[in-house]
Amino acid sequence: MEAVNTIEIIGYAASVMVAISLMMKDIIWLRCLNFTGCSLFVIYGASIEAWPVAGMNAFVACINVYHLVKLYRNRNSAQLAS
């Protein structure tokens, strides 16, 4: 498989992951799938040297990680309190 085709597949996979994440009712699943899509977009953007795409998605991926950590800490605190 050519490198260009692989890069395009990564871009399509990223788009699908982000779209699927927006259909999730569970916020944890939404954040996880969105993080995966953003990470793929970072790879895609860097591969085609589209730095605004890579940079913005890296930023969104960091936001997803921040909120996932916050959710898990709150969940663990609630379990310890009960």
Q: TL;DR?
A:
By secondary structure, the chain is mainly α. 87% of the residues lie in helices and 0% in strands.
Features:
single chain; 82 residues; mainly alpha; 87% helix; 0% strand; elongated
Describe this structure in words.
By secondary structure, this protein is mainly α. 87% of the residues lie in helices and 0% in strands. It has three helices and no strands. It has helices spanning 3-21, 27-47, 51-81. Helix 1 runs antiparallel to helix 2 (27-47) and helix 2 packs antiparallel against helix 3 (51-81). The longest helix has 31 residues, at 51-81. It is elongated, with a radius of gyration of 15 Å. This is YgjV family protein. It comes from Shewanella fidelis. The chain crosses the membrane at residues 27-44, 50-69. Keywords: Membrane, Transmembrane, Transmembrane helix.
Please give the structural blueprint:
Blueprint: H1 3-21, H2 27-47, H3 51-81
Helix pairs in contact: 1-2, 2-3
**Helix-strand topology string:** HHH
Q: Please estimate the helix content.
A: over 70%
Question: How far is the N terminus from the C terminus?
Answer: 54 Å
Label the overall shape: elongated
Could you state the oligomeric state of the chains shown?
A: single chain
State Rg. Answer: 15 Å
Unreliable stretches? none
Average predicted confidence as pLDDT: 93
Secondary structural class = mainly alpha
